[in-house]
Amino acid sequence: MNPATSIDRRSTRWDDHREQRRAELIDVARKLIHSDGPDVTMAAIAAASGTSKSIVYRYFQDKDELKQALGESILTRMTNKLEEGVRAGSTPEESIRTMVRMYVDSAASSVNVYHFVIQPSDGLSQFLEDCAALVAQSMEGILTGDRLHAWSVGTIGFVNATFQWWMDSDHSISKDQITTFIVSALLSGVLNDDNATPSALRGTL
């Protein structure tokens, strides 16, 4: 056997093991944030993983690196779900409705994790850009050019701000109701009556 090949295989196995172990530690951190809030310690993560802090530091230089990796993992998962929403929609309206529902369901599943991932970061900025691109993709052919870009970016801002208000409120309206309101406002416009169709909005753009 070629010694170089043997070394390469050992290196590959170590890389695979390292990535698997990092993923396991990230999952433990996510579960702790879900149950205890975003200020979990490296010691708590180590204890929940059945290991020591020194071992955790082999995979993450410090808590900030772990938080960054966790945020990227959660946001990537959410992006994948939203991409499913675009593919699942048979019409632009259905794509928007499905994406909003998936976003609300995912974010509302854990208040603590939601508040963790909305902290300003490069990962969050990329996530919002990706979301705007998905929204624009779903509305191609209905809006074009700058109008499509303006609507997609505005949609992300509206959905995030409205949902964050709902998460921080006393929840006097249900999750299904806030989802329906967001979709209706995006597709029909809040100034139209409840029976308005998406075409009412299109005519004003």
Can you tell me about this structure?
The longest helix is centred in the N-terminal third of the chain and has 34 residues, at 3-36. The chain has two domains: 1-60, Arc Repressor Mutant, subunit A (Orthogonal Bundle); 71-205, Tetracycline Repressor, domain 2 (Orthogonal Bundle). The chain has helices spanning 3-36, 42-48, 53-59, 63-88, 92-108, 111-117, 122-138, 145-168, 175-187, 198-202. The chain starts with a helix and ends with a helix. The chain contains ten helices and no strands. With 205 residues, the chain is mainly α. Helix 1 (3-36) crosses helix 4 and helix 5 runs antiparallel to helix 9 (175-187). The radius of gyration is 21 Å and the shape is globular.
Task: Offer a few descriptive terms.
Arc Repressor Mutant, subunit A; mainly alpha; Tetracycline Repressor, domain 2
Task: List the SSEs and their pairings.
Blueprint: H1 3-36, H2 42-48, H3 53-59, H4 63-88, H5 92-108, H6 111-117, H7 122-138, H8 145-168, H9 175-187, H10 198-202
